[in-house]
Amino acid sequence: MPIVSLNQRDPLIDGRQSERAMLVRRGVQRLMIQMRVSVLPEIPLVTGRRADLLGLSEKGEFTIVEIKSSIEDFRVDRKWPDYRLHCDRLYFATHPGVPTDIFPECCGLILSDGYGAEILREAPEERMSPATRKALTLRFARIASDRLLRAEWSANPFLTEGGLALDEDG
Q1: Do residues 40 and 139 touch, judged by C-beta distance below 8 A?
Q2: Which Pfam families does the record match to this protein (predicted)?
Q3: How far apart are CA 19 and CA 16, in angstroms?
């Protein structure tokens, strides 16, 4: 069951993601779950950017996965280097219809078919500063908690009487 936002805008499905990108996301999320990594989609970062997927490992390490559904999607996006400040590892994820040689060697690479995914190239580790890690850990926890509460409210509308609303600005 998808999580549904009580607000007009749904941060998880805002119309910017193509059907193909959503399939790639699903496969990567399944891979992350198998790896025992907690993962949240569409996470707003303090810079104003939004990570497609943000994963938190059992060791407290952060991974950002940037989903690219086509060659053009990759070519027009030049914001991805900014994500390095917010993770220990940065991956691109795509599907078999996109040539993998277009992605930079300095990032990891994941191939997803929508049902699962495989890491084709491990991402090099670039450790975040302790202050950034703490801030991102707190942001991850707040957003996860807010989304869980929204899911509970959507399953039981009685709980939302009184007009409470959550903003997802982190």
Answers
A1: no
A2: MmcB-like
A3: 10
- Its pTM stands at 0.83
Encoded amino acid at 43, one letter: I
Average pLDDT over residues 133-147: 95
* Residues 14-57: tens digit of each pLDDT: 456 789 999 999 999 999 999 999 999 999 998 889 999 999 99
Residue pointed to by tokens 């495989």: 118
Return the bridge partners of 65, or none.
53, 91
Q: Measured between alpha carbons, how far is 93 from 24 in angstroms, rounded to an integer? A: 7
Instruction: Give every CB contact of residue 120 below 8 A, 6+ residues apart in sequence.
Output: 100, 109, 110, 111
Is residue 124 predicted with pLDDT exceeding 70? yes
**In whole angstroms, what is the distance from residue 163 CA to residue 101 CA?**
50
How much of the chain exceeds pLDDT 70, in percent? 84
Q: Which residues pair with 117 in a beta bridge?
A: 112
Name, in order, each residue with C-beta under 8 angstroms of 72's C-beta and a sequence gap of 6 or more: none
Which residue's entry shows tokens 């957003």?
143
Minimal CA–CA distance to 111: which of 32, 37, 35, 24?
A: 24
Contact assessment for residue 90 and residue 84, using Cβ atoms and an 8 Å cutoff? yes
Query: Please, which residues bridge with residue 111 across strands?
Result: 94, 118
Q: Pick from 1, 124, 134, 115: which is nearest to 56 by CA?
A: 134
